[in-house]
Design brief:
The protein is built from one helix and seven strands. By secondary structure, the chain is mostly beta strands. It has one domain. Strands 1, 3, 4, 5 and 6 form a five-stranded mixed beta sheet that branches. A two-stranded parallel sheet has the order 2-7. Strand 5 and strand 6 form a beta hairpin. The termini are close together.
Length: about 80
């Protein structure tokens, strides 16, 4: 459950996904699911950033080489 993962730390609400082009993240991209923000660069790695409208799920950072697929269901 992504909510459990995001509550592991009291200091951060970021779930960072690191991998390569053989990896895939399925997320729901919609008004009720996640929406894309501007990419960020941290420690030399570009991350695509996704947030939820209510911010209940925090932010999802997906490494630049990972395939992001709109699955219609939350990860």
């Amino acid at each position: 459950n992504v909510n459990d993962l995001l509550h592991i730390s009291n200091e951060s609400n970021v779930l960072r996904v690191i991998g390569d082009s053989n990896d895939k993240v399925k997320i729901e991209l919609s008004d009720d699911g996640f929406f894309a923000e501007s990419p960020i660069l941290e420690d030399g790695v570009k991350y695509y950033v996704y947030s939820s409208p209510s911010n209940d799920f925090g932010r999802l950072w997906v490494g630049q080489n990972i395939v992001v697929e709109n699955s219609g269901e939350v990860i």
